[in-house]
Amino acid sequence: MRMDADEVRWPMVSRIDNVTLPLRPELVGLNPYGAPQLDVPVLLNTNENPYPPSAAVVDDIAEAVRTTAQGLNRYPDRDFLALRTELADYLATESGVRVDPGGIWVANASNEVMLHVLQAFGGPGRTVLSFAPTYSMYPEYARDTFTTWVAGRRTEDFTLDPDHATALVDQVRPSVVLLASPNNPTGTALPVATARAVLDAAAGVPGGCVVVVDEAYGEFRRPGTPSATELLAEHRHLAVVRTMSKAFGLAGARVGYLAAATELVDALRVVRLPYHLSAVTQAVARAALRHAPELMAQVGELRAQRDRWVEDLRARGLTACDSDANFVLFGVFDDAHALWQGLLDRGVLVREVGPAGWLRVSIGTPDEMAVFGTALDEVVDQ
Ligand SMILES: *Cc1c(COP(=O)(O)O)cnc(C)c1O
Prior knowledge:
The protein has helices at residues 55-69, 81-95, 109-121, 138-144, 162-172, 192-203, 262-271, 279-289, 292-315, 336-345, 366-381, and strands at 15-16, 19-20, 42-43, 104-107, 127-132, 148-153, 176-180, 210-214, 238-243, 256-259, 319-320, 327-331, 348-349, 359-362.
């Protein structure tokens, strides 16, 4: 059963009865991160793929786990080269860019991949730079690795102004820059020229700077939107992050990866926990990858739905951001919370995230989107 996240929230304390816990002062009073997990018929709040794996995928995963289970007395393959090779093959097919398997890194979803980047390249006395509004987990990687967090601004239409971005890189001298493309929660892709400008500025930072382009939603990009993987060959300080959580429909499996220079990946191998990627996770990922064409077939349909919903929301007189992801940011409401609540009362959960007045809806199945549309009309008309 899904639990309401609010039920497990508590203000973190540093005293229990008469004992003091040496909680880091910056953690006092904080809540664990997470979107509410409510038991609601239409879940459009965490950008999951609405289509569960097919029976054929489930069978293949189950068989792979059964085989793996027979060897679970042993630690897993620490360097999981088979999985890295298969991910390199997938990336070559998906983006046309071939990366050496040694330049692929995998962890328990892309959040852990990026934490590894901060563990290796951030740290006390160092800075990580990003541009708000953006993914709300980024400041948490900074906090958890004692790295200073600096956020520049996106423009009014949520794009990144290259002059602002490069000026800030020159000024702040970060050791890591985090750029989501497409950006969450806005859906905005990063033009290659902007990525190049940031990479060039980063190359001039004394002591070096790793630029992460987080393409968690990369597969949903519109035709003509390039992937930052195209820049890997010329920029050895670039890491492109991907995940199986969104397009692959495997959010529950926790598999994310990045592509970068082998030397950059070798640094991540130093900071990862021993045997961090379980044998079961490796088996599940490899089984799912064998079905990549089938799993990806729905991506095209979701993209088409997304484009239609951008238009539909605009036809309702709302503002909807262009999106290269499987979600749409829309607004602008005087009281976005009231609208969110109105949708929830009608069984539809969207996300209250990002700039004030906006809401984010993940693209669901056509049936789910129809329920969303009806609920939205009712609430907006109220
Ligand atoms: C969903 C998301 C991720 C991926 O999360 P996983 O840890 O791979 O499930 C990464 N970056 C952004 C911007 C996201 O929205």
